């Protein structure tokens, strides 16, 4: 089991080049007039990112003892495949910041040219995304945030030496083997709200909560949940008679929403989360009754974002 490290210890390690940075570290160097970056890869499975400019996959991976390569498409939320000499490859080009999951038959160094510009931010869906990091060494709390109720619920980084995943959860101390993002890391990130974005050199950023109206649906809490603590601070007990109570994953804690069904409306505050879909709000019985009847169970609504968290 790895120990957890303090911020002071971590920042001292970054400044002094301590062993904390050794696993997966990528040191830039210059060959002639061209800057390159070398990423250490081990035998077995590796999760790594292409940090160079957009390049044909075969050229970018040339010289690596590959067994299989998979690339994650963040926009389509699906896997792309490439194999040397194989027809029908769906991963024909590696774009800057492209995260990869691949197996090597032996250890190798992956030398990459440095890119002249970073990729544009990608909007992240609710749930898991496989993302590439092409920035400099960065403490995990800066890349993913430190608010336990922010857009990131957790992040996972693969350690090729131990062939296992290590996690970081905002609000908790970082694990020693996942305290810093290194150039070339690839990570799984789970977001709990829509609208957040990822920049391969900056990290996750919350979305803008502009006033807008979207289509959605509403349900109400099961009666058995009465009195249970809610997710958002101060973790008040669920009260079925509170007409302002709502749970959602598409907006962070404290967001104020106005829900419309025809001419009927109710103003609510996101105070809880749950296994909900995008633009799905779960209401107290009192709030649901402002829009419909309990036997309806699930209704179609319009959702207006009034204000973000205070």
Give a written overview of the molecule:
This protein has helices at residues 7-16, 57-60, 140-144, 285-289, and strands at 4-5, 26-31, 34-41, 44-50, 55-56, 66-73, 78-82, 93-94, 98-104, 108-113, 122-123, 127-132, 138-139, 152-159, 164-168, 174-175, 180-181, 186-191, 197-199, 203-205, 213-220, 245-247, 256-261, 264-272, 280-283, 299-307. It is mainly beta and 310 residues long. The chain folds into two domains: 4-205, no CATH class; 213-307, Barwin-like endoglucanases (Beta Barrel). The strands form eight sheets. A six-stranded mixed barrel has the order 21-25-22-24-23-26. Strands 4-9-6-7 form a four-stranded antiparallel sheet. A hairpin with a 2-residue loop joins strand 23 (256-261) and strand 24 (264-272).
Lay out the secondary structure.
Elements lengths: L3 E2 L1 H10 L9 E6 L2 E8 L2 E7 L4 E2 H4 L5 E8 L4 E5 L10 E2 L3 E7 L3 E6 L8 E2 L3 E6 L5 E2 H5 L7 E8 L4 E5 L5 E2 L4 E2 L4 E6 L5 E3 L3 E3 L7 E8 L24 E3 L8 E6 L2 E9 L7 E4 L1 H5 L9 E9 L3
Parallel strand pairs: 21-25, 22-24
Antiparallel strand pairs: 1-16, 2-3, 3-10, 4-9, 5-8, 6-7, 6-9, 11-19, 12-18, 13-17, 14-15, 14-18, 19-20, 21-26, 22-25, 23-24, 23-26
Give me some keywords for this one.
310 residues; mainly beta; 8% helix; 4 helices; 2 domains; Barwin-like endoglucanases
């Amino acid at each position: 089991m790895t120990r957890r490290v303090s911020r002071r210890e971590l920042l001292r390690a970054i400044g002094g080049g301590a062993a904390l940075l050794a696993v997966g570290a990528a040191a830039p160097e210059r060959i002639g007039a061209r800057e390159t970056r070398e990423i250490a890869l081990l035998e077995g499975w590796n999760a790594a990112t292409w940090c160079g400019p957009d390049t044909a996959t075969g050229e970018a991976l040339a010289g690596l003892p590959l067994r299989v390569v998979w690339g994650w498409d963040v926009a389509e939320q699906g896997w792309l495949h490439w194999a040397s000499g194989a027809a029908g490859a769906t991963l024909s080009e590696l774009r800057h910041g492209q995260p990869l999951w691949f197996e090597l038959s032996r250890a190798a160094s992956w030398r990459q040219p440095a890119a002249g510009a970073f990729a544009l931010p990608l909007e992240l869906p609710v749930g898991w995304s496989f993302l590439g990091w092409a920035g400099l060494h960065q403490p995990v709390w800066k890349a993913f945030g430190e608010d336990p109720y922010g857009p990131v619920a957790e992040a996972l980084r693969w350690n090729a030496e131990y062939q296992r995943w290590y996690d970081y959860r905002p609000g908790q101390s970082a694990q020693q083997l996942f305290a810093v993002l290194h150039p070339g890391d690839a990570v799984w990130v789970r977001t709990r709200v829509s609208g957040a974005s990822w920049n391969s050199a900056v990290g996750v950023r919350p979305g803008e909560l502009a006033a807008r109206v979207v289509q959605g649906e509403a349900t109400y809490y099961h009666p058995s949940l009465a009195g249970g603590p809610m997710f958002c601070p101060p973790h008040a007990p669920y009260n079925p008679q509170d007409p302002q109570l709502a749970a959602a994953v598409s907006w962070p804690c404290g967001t104020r929403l106005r829900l419309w069904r025809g001419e009927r409306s109710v103003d609510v505050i996101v105070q809880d989360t749950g296994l909900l879909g995008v633009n799905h709000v779960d209401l107290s019985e009192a709030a649901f009754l402002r829009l419909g009847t309990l036997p309806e169970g699930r209704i179609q609504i319009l959702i207006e974002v009034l204000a973000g968290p205070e």
